[in-house]
Amino acid sequence: MTEALVRSFLAAGTDLLDHVDRALVDLESRPGDLPLRRQVTEFCGILHRSGSFLGLHQVAALSAALTSLVEAAAPTDGQAPVDPPVVSVLLQLVDAIRAEMARILPGAG
Amino acid sequence: MAEGGVPRHLVAGQWQVLRKMARRADPVAVLADITARVEQDFPRGICCVVLADAETGDLRAAVPGAHHDVVRQRLHQLACSPAGPSSALAEAPEAVALSFPGEHGRWGAWAVEVAAVGVRRFWTVPLHAARGGKVHGALTMFDASSDSPVTSEGTVLMEHFAALTAITIDFEQVVQQTAQVALVDTLTGLATRALLLDRLAQALFRARRRLKLVAVMFLDLDGFKNVNDTYGHEAGDAVLVEVAARVRRVVRPSDTVARIGGDEFVVVCEDLRGESDLALIVDRLHSTLAGAYALRDAVVAVGVSIGATLTDGSVGVEDVLHEADSLMYQAKRTADAGAGGEPE
After folding, report:
1. B215 by DSSP, 3-state: which?
2. Could you say which DSSP state residue B315 is in?
3. Nearest Cα to B39, choosing from B123, B137, B143, B125?
4. Angstrom distance (rounded) from CA B278 to CA B46
5. Which of B43, B66, B113 sits opposite A46 (nearest CB)?
6. Three-state DSSP class for B197?
7. Exposed, middle or buried: residue B26 (CB in 10 Å: 0-12, 13-18, 19+)?
8. At A29, which helix (H) or strand (E)?
9. How far apart are the CA of B93 and the nearest CA of chain A, in angstroms?
10. What gap in Å lies between CA A83 and CA A27, rounded to an integer?
11. Which residue of B has its CA nearest to A14?
């Protein structure tokens, strides 16, 4: 049953990463969009917490790094704009999480 | 954890949560904040607040997880399961701590499901209400860490956060009750003056927008003082409760009935077509309210003086109330002059 939960997490996690992907691109043009920033932080938090619970340590660690970087680059108080080069780095991290998920259970996502 | 007391980071977190409550943050957000703080102390743990339905005792997650948060959703199901230990906290309000795998007696079937999703340690701690010996629900922790079996340190930590969670829920209930008391007359269940002013302002606004008429009727009981003086305040209260019930039967559910003083009531009816509609309502109020009221030990009679006015919404709230009040006094003087007495 743990495997079933891992599969569900990977499927939902892939959707979450798609949302994060789009939201990060949107943040480039709408740096002051606070709900969007909060959504990115929340989705990264879900990946980190669920990954930790399921023992998917690489996913959890990368998601934690993504959460910290998003909070630093796009704080939810909306003070700082998000620079395109920073967004580019964040998107690479999203790709790394996606690759790690694909490695865990091929075809699950 | 610090020796001999609550760790410093918990105290700091506690103050931050209390500050959010004082600033009237969304209570669900405050509870989500508490669960996030608990999870900081359990790196592989997921925390849920579950609340018990006051009537059925059924449990539900107080902080609904996001749609995509499938792991949290699954743990919410397990936390709220009637087969799990949280469901028994109302009868035996003691913290329960379990390690998995293991033998868990009456929770056996539930424990198999919990262990199957990778949980190694579990706590559920009752949320004691400040008054009435009630239990709001439970703070639960599902921990996948296999470092050690359940520890008393973990239980102390959970009990600390459970106390904070219970205070948050108590506070929210008090705020809601206070708001309710300010808007609803506790004796009759009718609107208070505060709610009347708000409803009347909205009714006047709607009348202007829809080109309709609003009736405002000011009611004052005749002979009520005699009931109080002769039979006591308990009898007077019984009459007021009955008056409220009778007025409600005359008007539509959408109309507003308020008690704004001892024996003074105001009725607001919307969407009237003209004076004839108003006269019909006033006649019904007179015939329904005047007459006998059966008390426990006696039958008493009271009358009612009504001042009624129609408006198209072009006047202010206080103006229309003042006009209805003046008309009520005219009606009372006329009635008293006819009976040869002084106004009450």
Report:
1. strand
2. S
3. B143
4. 62
5. B66
6. helix
7. exposed
8. helix A2-29
9. 28
10. 9
11. B68
SS3 B321: helix
Any idea which residue has 């009624």 for tokens? B308
Q: Does A36 touch chain B (CB under 8 A)?
A: no
- Environment class of residue B23 by beta-carbon count within 10 Å: exposed (0-12), middle (13-18) or buried (19+)? exposed
Cα–chain center distance at A83: 18
- Calculate ∠ Cα A20-A21-A27, nearest 5°: 80
Closest CA to B243 of B266, B277, B268: B266
Residues of A in contact with B144 (CB under 8 A): 52-55
Q: Which of B28, B33, B35, B70 to mutate to test the interface with A (most CBs of A within 10 A)?
A: B70
Q: Kindly report the backbone phi and psi dihedral angles of residue B234, in degrees, each rounded to the nearest multiple of 5, phi listed first.
A: -65, -40
The string of DSSP codes covering A31-87 is: TT-HHHHHHHHHHHHHHHHHHHHTT-HHHHHHHHHHHHHHHHHS-TT--SPPPHHHH
Nearest residue to B212 (alpha-carbon basis) of B277, B165, B162, B144: B277
Tokens 């340690």: give the residue. B121
Tens digits of pLDDT across chain B (344 residues) = 444 466 777 788 888 999 998 888 889 999 999 999 999 989 999 999 999 998 888 999 999 878 889 999 999 999 999 999 999 988 888 999 999 888 889 999 999 999 999 999 999 999 999 988 899 999 999 999 977 777 788 898 999 999 999 999 999 988 888 877 788 998 999 999 989 999 999 999 999 988 899 999 999 999 999 998 899 889 999 999 999 999 999 999 999 999 998 999 999 999 999 999 999 999 999 999 988 999 888 899 999 999 999 999 999 999 999 999 999 999 988 877 665 555 55
State the smallest CA–CA distance between residue A8 and chain B in angstroms: 7
In the three-class reduction of DSSP (H, G, I as helix; E, B as strand; rest coil), residue B303 is classed as strand
Q: Which of B48, B68, B110 to mutate to test the interface with A (most CBs of A within 10 A)?
A: B68
**Which of A1, A46, A53 comes nearest B68 by C-beta?**
A46
Contact A55 B118 (CB under 8 A): yes
Contact at 8 Å (CB) between B298 and B249?
no
Question: Rounded to whole angstroms, what are the CA distances from B199 to B121, B195, B257, B260?
Answer: 53, 6, 10, 13
Set of chain B residues whose Cβ sits within 8 Å of the Cβ of A53: 44-46, 71, 118, 142, 144
CA-CA distances (angstroms) from residue A73 to A60, B84, B142?
Answer: 20, 43, 32
Q: Which of B41, B48, B62, B14 is nearest to B169 (CA)?
A: B62
